[in-house]
Amino acid sequence: MRLLHTMLRVGNLDRSLMFYTETLGMRLLRRKDYPEGRFTLAFVGYQDESDGAVIELTHNWDTDRYEIGTGYGHIAIEVEDAYDTCATIKARGGLVVREAGPMKHGTTVIAFVEDPDGYKIELIQRSGRED
């Protein structure tokens, strides 16, 4: 068994694709419209689906906004340098909601960014990471 993907419902697929590809540097791996069901699935990631887990962006054509709820946490991405990554994300128009720095009660350097739909993405700096 292996983890395949995490699915997020998004209100504006083009806006979300721009964030995940241009702001976070992922690639659009595949996209398919389902006209009879009035939805589109787009898969993004840093590597091919056969090599690792990806994110499935689901856009229901008749829904432009979702409530995230209190059960959702975040997606985590390992980065070489959280400080530089935050600066790059800001320069690309992304929203950093927690600047890079040591995590509370620990030494691992983390940061949080938010996608256009309000989903949180944690950036975890590779060096000095605690498990």
UniProtKB/TrEMBL annotation:
<feature type="domain" description="VOC">
    <location>
        <begin position="2"/>
        <end position="126"/>
    </location>
</feature>
<keyword id="KW-0456">Lyase</keyword>
<dbReference type="InterPro" id="IPR004360">
    <property type="entry name" value="Glyas_Fos-R_dOase_dom"/>
</dbReference>
<dbReference type="InterPro" id="IPR004361">
    <property type="entry name" value="Glyoxalase_1"/>
</dbReference>
<keyword id="KW-0533">Nickel</keyword>
<dbReference type="InterPro" id="IPR029068">
    <property type="entry name" value="Glyas_Bleomycin-R_OHBP_Dase"/>
</dbReference>
<comment type="function">
    <text>Catalyzes the conversion of hemimercaptal, formed from methylglyoxal and glutathione, to S-lactoylglutathione.</text>
</comment>
<dbReference type="Pfam" id="PF00903">
    <property type="entry name" value="Glyoxalase"/>
</dbReference>
<comment type="similarity">
    <text>Belongs to the glyoxalase I family.</text>
</comment>
<dbReference type="InterPro" id="IPR018146">
    <property type="entry name" value="Glyoxalase_1_CS"/>
</dbReference>
<keyword id="KW-0479">Metal-binding</keyword>
<comment type="pathway">
    <text>Secondary metabolite metabolism; methylglyoxal degradation; (R)-lactate from methylglyoxal: step 1/2.</text>
</comment>
<dbReference type="GO" id="GO:0004462">
    <property type="term" value="F:lactoylglutathione lyase activity"/>
</dbReference>
<protein>
    <recommendedName>
        <fullName>Lactoylglutathione lyase</fullName>
        <ecNumber>4.4.1.5</ecNumber>
    </recommendedName>
</protein>
<dbReference type="InterPro" id="IPR037523">
    <property type="entry name" value="VOC_core"/>
</dbReference>
